[in-house]
Amino acid sequence: MFLVSWAELARSRPVSMVPSFRRSSLNPRRPGCIDPSLDDMYVLIPSLPPPEENNEPTDHLVSRIYYINAEQLNELQSLASSDGDKRTKLESFSAFLWKMLATYTADEDRNKISKMGIVVDGRARLGEGDQDKATAMGCHFGNVLSIPYGSQTIGELSEKPLCWAAKQVHEFLKPATTKEHFLGLIDWVEAHRPEPAMTRVYNVVKDDGPALVVSSGLRFPVSKVDFGWGCPAFGSYHFPWGGVCGYVMPMPSRVREGDWVVYMLLLEGQLEQIEKEAANVFRPFTFDYVDL
C-alpha cells in the first residue's frame, strides 16, 4: 500500500487507497479471551534464557533469489495433494522446502526437531462480518500478522512423502486463519504489555534442528508501483534478520503469470543443498527472467 501510494503521488495522481491509522481497529476485548495455544506460539523475550557462550554458528544466513516456473509449482501441488486433500501452492511449496532443510541435516541426530512457521495476514480476518471494519482494515497502515508454526523430527520430514509434510503444514496453519485467532492474539498482547514478545519459531537454541519462516508476497501489486518510468520488471525483498532461523518470501513474477520470484535467507549450506538436490525447481535468478 505504501509503495503504491508513493508511486501515485509521484505521478500527481489521486491516492487510490488512503491509509488508515485508527488504532481503535486493534483494540482488545473487555474482558479478553485468550486461547492457551497462543502461549505455545509466542514467548515473552525477557523470559528467554541468556544466549549460550561459545555457541557461535559455524554457518551463517545468506540471501539469494530464485525463479520457480509455474509448471514446477503445479507439480509440487499435485504431489502434495496426492493423498486426496488438495493443498494450496503455498502449503505445497512450504512443505517441500521444509523437507529439503530436514534432508540437509538428516545425517545428524534424526530426532532433532525442525520448526516451520508461515506468516498469516489478519486484515481480512478481523474484518469478517463487519463491512466498516473490513474497509478500515483493508487500508490499515502497519502489519497485522500472526506466525503459527509446526514442529516435526528431522527423520520424519526427510523420510515421509510430500503429501504428509503438506498435511502437517495445513494443520498448524488452519487454526490461525480465523477471526477469533487474531482477536485472541490482540488480547494476548494486551495482557502481556509492555513486555516485548516474539514468535517461538524464531527462538532456535543449540540442540534444535533447522527452522524457517515462510511469508507470502504473492498479492503484492508489482504492476501498480509505477513512478513514471514504467512498471518494474522485477520485485523482491531483502529481510536480513539475525539469528539462524531462515526466512523465505515468494512473489509473483512480473513477466510470466504463475511463475514466482523467491527471496531466500537461509544458511549457506542449506542453500547449497537446495541448489544441488532441487535445481529443477529453484533456478538462480538472472536477468534472463525479467525479459529486458
TrEMBL record:
Top-rank lineage group of the source organism: Eukaryota
Entries under Gene3D superfamilies matching the protein: Chloramphenicol acetyltransferase-like domain
The protein's name in its UniProt record: Zinc finger protein GIS2-like
Pfam families: Transferase
InterPro entries on file: CAT-like_dom_sf, Plant_Fungal_Acyltransferase
Signal sequence coordinates: none
Organism placement in taxonomy: Eukaryota, Viridiplantae, Streptophyta, Embryophyta, Tracheophyta
Protein's organism: Hibiscus syriacus
A GO MF label: acyltransferase activity, transferring groups other than amino-acyl groups
Recorded family membership: Belongs to the plant acyltransferase family.
PANTHER family: SHIKIMATE O-HYDROXYCINNAMOYLTRANSFERASE-LIKE, TRICHOTHECENE 3-O-ACETYLTRANSFERASE
